[in-house]
Amino acid sequence: MPLAQIHILEGRTEEQKQAVIEKVTDALCEAVGAPREAVRVVIYDVPKTNWGIAGKSAKSLGR
């Protein structure tokens, strides 16, 4: 059972997250030959204050 874990900054819409789930599922099915029913995708919405870039939080950088 392939499991993909995706970490993204908070703020994406449900539609955007659904698109990620569909496309990652398609990619895993194609790449490793897994049946769709076996693929799992987990999306972690990370708060901008908890995501660091070059020593600063994404929030302080206006991301």
SSE layout and pairing:
Elements lengths: L2 E7 L4 H19 L7 E7 L5 E2 L2 E2 L6
Parallel strand pairs: 1-2
Antiparallel strand pairs: 3-4
In short:
The protein is of the alpha+beta class and 63 residues long. The chain has one helix at 14-32, and strands at 3-9, 40-46, 52-53, 56-57. The chain has one domain (3-57): 2-Layer Sandwich (Macrophage Migration Inhibitory Factor), CATH 3.30.429.10.
Key words describing this protein structure:
single chain, 63 residues, alpha+beta, Macrophage Migration Inhibitory Factor, two-stranded parallel ribbon, two-stranded antiparallel sheet, elongated
Question: What does this entry look like structurally?
Answer:
The chain is an alpha+beta fold and 63 residues long. It has a single domain (3-57), classed as Macrophage Migration Inhibitory Factor, CATH 3.30.429. The protein has one helix and four strands. The protein has one helix at 14-32, and strands spanning 3-9, 40-46, 52-53, 56-57. A two-stranded parallel sheet has the order 1-2. The longest helix is centred in the middle third of the chain and has 19 residues, at 14-32. It starts with a strand and ends in a 6-residue tail after the last strand. The model has no long low-confidence stretch (mean pLDDT 97).
